[in-house]
Amino acid sequence: MGRIARRFLLLAGLTLALGQACLSPTLPMPPPEEPQVTAGSEPDTVLVSGRVPYAYSMVWAVNWSQAELDDPRAVGGDQSDDEGAYAFELRGREGEFCEIWYEYHGDKSQIRQFEIPPLP
After folding, report:
1. CA 26 – CA 68 distance, rounded (Å)
2. Distance CA 107, CA 104 (A)
3. Per-residue pLDDT tens digits for 53-93
4. Domain that holds residue 51
């Protein structure tokens, strides 16, 4: 086999391998850390805050107990800052279960569930 034929086969093999790499699934983004939940500025609201791994991500949370009551404040969100920090208010009461996730460049993280703790 000539030198040109070997180079062609090597180049074709590399091109095929790189093309397959682009088709392989990416790893899922990790869920956000457990958020801090404190009393909100109004009755029956909580302040949800924490950090996500990617700066300028959109962070979302939903309180399913309140969402079932069609409460528009059952969903809250914020864009994280340049260090990944976020904070937003959400309708909620002690013992209700919520879910939180973030989105970065069109990819959605895994969901973390949390319970609203007893508040002062």
Report:
1. 34
2. 5
3. 999 999 999 999 998 888 889 999 999 999 999 999 999 99
4. 36-115
